[in-house]
Amino acid sequence: MAVRNRIPFRVKPMLPTLVPEPFDLLGWDYEEKYDGDRVLAYKEGERVRLLSRNEKDRTDRFPGIASAIRGLRPDTLLLDGEVVVFDKKGVSRFQLLQRGEGDPVFAAFDCLFHDGHDLRREPLSARWAVLEKAIVAGKNLLIAHKLDGNGLEAFRAAQHHGYEGLVAKDLSSPYVDGRSKKWLKVKVHQEDEFVIAGFTRPAGSRQHFGALLLGAYQKGKLRYVGKVGTGFDQERLSALHKRFRSLARKETALADPPREKGITFLAPRLVAQVAFQEWTADSKLRQPVFLGLRDDKRPEDVVLPEVPK
Question: What is the pTM of this model?
Answer without folding.
Answer: 0.81
